[in-house]
Amino acid sequence: LRQPAVPEGLRRPPGPRGYPILGNVLELRKDTHLALTRLSRRYGDVMEVRIGTRAVLVLSGLDTIRQALVKQGEDFMGRPDLYSFRFIADGQSLGFSPDSGEVWKARRKLAQSALKSFSVAPSPTSSCSCLLEEHVSKEAEYLVTKFLQLMEDEKRFEPYQYLVVSVANVICAMCFGKRYEHDDQELLRLVNSTEEFNNVAAAGNPADFIPVLRYLPSRSMELFMDFNRYFLSFLQKRVKEHYDTYDENNIRDITDSLIEQCLDKKMGTSAAMQIPKEKIVNLVNDLFGAGFESTTTALSWSLLYLVTYPNMQKRIQEELDQTIGRERRPRLSDRGTLPYTEAFILEMFRHSSFLPFTIPHSTTKDTELNGYYIPKDRCVFVNQWQVNHDEKLWQDPEAFSPERFLSADGTKVNKEEAEKVLVFGLGKRKCIGENIARWQVFLFLATLLQQLEFSVCEGSRVDMTPLYGLSLKHKRCEHFQAVWPSGTECIA
Ligand code: HEM
User: Fold this and answer.
1) What pLDDT digit, counting tens, does each position of 424-461 carry?
2) Mean pLDDT, residues 395-403 taken together
3) Could you tell me the distance, in angstroms and rounded to a whole number, from the CA of residue 113 to the centre of ligand 1?
4) Which of 424, 428, 429, 430 to mutate to test the pocket of ligand 1 (most atoms within 8 A of CB)?
5) What backbone phi and psi angles, to 5 degrees, belong to 455?
6) Ligand 1 in contact with 293 (CB < 6 A)?
């Protein structure tokens, strides 16, 4: 392996010696986030590993990550050209493709603005404060009814399959102005095969780094490609329907607003905005894909923690009772008034760290970090899991304790502590759906917990062992139960 010369005064990042050809791939194969966290204890916040013959820079420690992604944001905002990413959204994904130039910047801006218009904009038809509140309230209400019906019919249920359709419906409403039934086969096929995406898009997938593996038959790669093809064709159908019924005087949803941008004459005026048409409409792929998968995972982990720690569930319900009561449903504006609920959500994000790494970054030019030389086009893994479990930042990081985010009197969320949790990335590539995701998780949980108490059947336990992938999943649990909170009347 040829390494670029290191300029005087700088050093090469340290890291474990690997095997010839394989590099460190064997050590990193399983639970990559844990393996890299262990290695970072030995080699530090700026470390280099090799996957196959390719060097990968691994960043740990909140200060180092802030330095790289925020203070030196331009240097670290690239995306590596990874083999598996070429199959996502036909290689045109905003989040996964190697583009980080003017076209990416302009697309990101368009996506952010379209997302904002159809989430926090006032709802024209309901009393809700915004469209997002309207969609989430409707879907959460549906879930309450569904869970109670399942209890009546079967006495137990597996929540993930219902959560995923409800969360997908929220982003579908924003992107396509459409809601799907929970037994819609077209949507179910899509939302139930994300595992295939999750496994291959995980940080450190050997096929991305060891070219010969691409020529060997791989079932997981085939499933990944099938998933991406199906996903694209599902979305293209929706986009075509929109083109066919488009009316410039009635912009119905995100897809319409992106079509409007394509047709907008002003677009031609700035070189930066000369984005090919299909690259604009394809933005819905990123919004839709990123929009349902991680938010569902957040809610699913939340339910697992709630049944594992029933005393915390009770405390959230007491807080909801005292602050909101039972005469009305929770709203987004209640978020600042429910500190324990908020602290629970922060602790779920921190403790599960279900996105253990950001999407991989790459350097856009030769640079330095903490006295180490980093050449251009270096692939960079950002270890969010390490930050969220760093003993230097958190007392007893393995304990699940929402209290760590509360002021001493329990009445406020401590902002400084909250900002240490790293799940949405930082800087120029930071998640563009962060606010929407946080609001959704809050409103889904508050609405569900105002009306239901969750548990698992007597004698069964949920398995919290994280399964490694782009996002950390857990085994599904078929033994969930939900009842009206004890000692209360039905409040329909
Ligand atoms: C990127 C987390 C929900 C849209 C990301 C990244 C993370 C993340 C870690 C990569 C940041 C980086 O590479 O440095 C999450 C979590 C979510 C969530 C934890 C839910 C709990 C959403 C939602 C949307 C969204 C609801 C849109 C509706 C995106 C997009 C990118 C992204 C488009 C790519 C940005 C770019 O590369 O420029 N997200 N996300 N995400 N997210 Fe999210």
Assistant:
1) 999 999 999 999 999 999 999 999 999 999 999 998 88
2) 98
3) 15
4) 424
5) -155, 180
6) no
Cβ of residue 108 lying under 6 Å from some atom of ligand 1: yes
Distance CA 82, CA 92 (A): 13
Q: What is the mean pLDDT of residues 276-299?
A: 89
* Biggest alpha carbon–alpha carbon distance for the chain: 73
> Which one-letter DSSP state was computed for residue 202?
S
The reply to whether ipTM tops 0.85 is: yes
CA 181 to chain CA centroid, Å, is 24
Q: Which of 118-122, 154-158, 180-184, 394-398 has the lowest mean pLDDT?
A: 118-122
**Closest alpha carbon to 374 in 71, 55, 100:** 55
CA of 319 to the centre of ligand 1 (A): 30
Q: Quick check: pTM over 0.90?
A: yes
Query: Which of 253, 348, 431, 436 maximizes ligand 1 atoms within 8 Å of its Cβ, making it the mutation to test the pocket?
Result: 431
Ligand 1 pocket member 437 (CB < 6 A): yes
- Residue pLDDT, tens place only, 218-258: 899 999 999 999 999 999 999 999 999 999 999 999 999 99
Q: Is the CB of 425 under 6 A from ligand 1?
A: yes
Residue 432: name the closest of 218, 230, 174, 210 by CA. 174
pLDDT digits (tens, 9 = 90+) for 54-106: 999 999 999 999 999 999 999 999 999 999 999 999 899 999 999 999 999 99
Question: Which residue matches tokens 């109670």?
Answer: 148
Signed CA dihedral, 313, 318, 320, 326: sign only: positive
Q: How remote is the CA of residue 19 from the centroid of ligand 1, in Å?
A: 34
Residue in this structure with the two tokens 């394989």, named with its chain if needed: 22
Mind listing the pLDDT tens digit for each residue in 351-375?
A: 999 999 999 999 999 999 999 999 9
> Smallest Cα–Cα separation from 335: which of 139, 416, 326, 344?
344
3-state secondary structure 206-264: HHHCCHHHHHCCCHHHHHHHHHHHHHHHHHHHHHHHHHHHCCCCCCCCHHHHHHHHHHC
* pLDDT category of residue 490 using cuts at 50, 70 and 90: very low
Q: Which residue has the tokens 């916040």?
A: 45
- CB burial string 162-191: b at 16+ within 10 A, e below: bbbbbbbbbbbbbbbeebbeeeeeebbebb
The answer to whether the beta carbons of residues 372 and 430 sit under 8 Å apart is no
C-alpha triplet 154, 179, 163: angle, nearest 5°: 40
Q: What does the pLDDT read at residue 264?
A: 74
Q: How far is the CA of 357 from the centre of ligand 1 (A)?
A: 12
Neighbours of 135 (CB within 10 A): 25
Ligand 1 pocket residue status of 472, Cβ below 6 Å:
no
Average pLDDT of the residues in 289-308: 95
Q: Which residues pair with 11 in a beta bridge?
A: 372
